[in-house]
Amino acid sequence: MYYRQWIIVLLSAVIFLWGSETALAAKYFYDQNGRLEQVQTDKDTISYEYDPNGNLISSSTQGNLLRNPDFEFYNKDTGLADHWGTYRGPGITPVFEVVDNPVNSGKHAQKISAANMPGGGLNVWQDVKVKAGETYTIRGRLQTAALNNAKAVIVMHYLDANGVLISGQEVASYTAATHWISLNSKVTPPSGTSTMRLHIHLEATASGGSGTIYADSFTVTQSPDPNLLYNPGFETYTDSDGVADGWQAFSSGVTPNDQVVTSPVTSGTRAQKIAASNMAVGQVTNVWQEAMVRGGITCTVSGRLQIPSLTNARAVVVMHYLDAKGALIRGQEVASYKAASDWITFNTPITPPAGTVTTRLHIHLEPYSNGASGTIYADSMVLKEGVETNLLYNPDFETYTGSNGVADGWKAF
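Above: the chain sequence. Below: its structure as tokens.
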């Protein structure tokens, strides 16, 4: 694997390009009502949730082992986010830049770019202390652009107490240009591991390779998280475009009315609204997210929809299966509703076809006659490997984020 090509250079140079160990000033994010929503420091992220009356109901930390995982703190002179190191192979002129566009969440993302690479690659990386034999979840968001004889790769190196490489593991690889894509992989450091090094790597696959990677929202946690989606409950919203962080909007021939709302919700404090009016046949509007999956491995896609109104239109949940080059293999409709409803749970097993590398989940408003209109609220989306046989949401009443005495997903009468 490629890490053998440059690990010798890494170890011989003993490159430890950490940012300053001095504690950095916290960065504060506020919602549209001026309430403190998130505090990001170089060590962790604290999120705050409020009830519809504006009362604080909970705060939580991510338990993220990475420092500055969202690339919000950075050195303007080097173009590198604080607490991340860099590597470049011989003959490569790197471009490292912390950018404010594109971003997945917050205000910044890390750009990694190079042109005319003779071979090898370049990356940004960070070490975290881990325990051998325990399982960790690696999550993040990547956007790739103009990959030519190059690929974007996420690689873990496992180092012993003396910093000597034990082994390496590739956990994700992309050869096609993508919009923001979610990755979710589990790793178990081998015996003797003291430190795990996460690399976000741009690698030449042939001489003259070039490309650009944007990275954002990375986490390394010990807590298992089987959901392959980023921000599945639409709780994080740091932009002003009406679409929750990590999700994209698409419309054809129609002006949508997308909003991140605080009511109605089925869990947490937010949900995603998708609405449009005066639609003609052939027009469509949706929100979507792309995530890494494995061809032939059965998954379950589930979620909650509320549909207050539909006229000559239907609410549809559609999966697209894409290959390594980003080409569509096929699509699959997993849920469809023509009638208005209160919160309803859909739960459908899917098996991505052979050759699938990513799948794109669409929450879709589609007319079947001219003059169509409708509104959909979406919440609590899940995409995970395996089959979930229970068709109920929150069947054990474990999730309770409201204040009405009724567990999330359930109603009182």
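Residues 295 and 352 are 5 Å apart (CA to CA).
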